[in-house]
Predict the 3D structure of the following.
Amino acid sequence: MGMFRAIDTSASGLTAERLRMDVISNNIANVNTTRTEDGQPFRRKMVIFEARNSSTQHPLMSRSISEEAGRGVRVNSIKEDMAPFKLEYDPNHPDADAEGYVRRPNISIVHEMVDMITATRAYEANVTCINSAKDLTNAALNIGGRG
């Protein structure tokens, strides 16, 4: 049953990293959004992960999975980065204040791209783990079939 746990753990990582990539993409898409529905510039969003360790009944196992390490990951929340907005002098911008400064989102493209690379690599690592578990299972099933 370890193969199913490995796949389940890696699948939880795939789901979490996919959401993280979506949030990063949303941050990049809003790098120039100076006014949202609440009248403020767009705030960078961050995905907060937590260990998935609740006791659950696995459909392929007769016993429940107890609280142990290595059960995967899940998204705890998506939080806004409370770092200050960037100020840019642009007196012709429609959102400029009385001094001519525009408050821009607290997003750094470089930081977002680094986050995207790490999320992509984590996603790829989870895919590799799932493929390895499948290969090991196939090899184990073929041991008795040869001869």
Summary: The mean pLDDT is 89. The first strand starts at residue 45 and ends at 51. The helical segments are 2-29, 109-143.
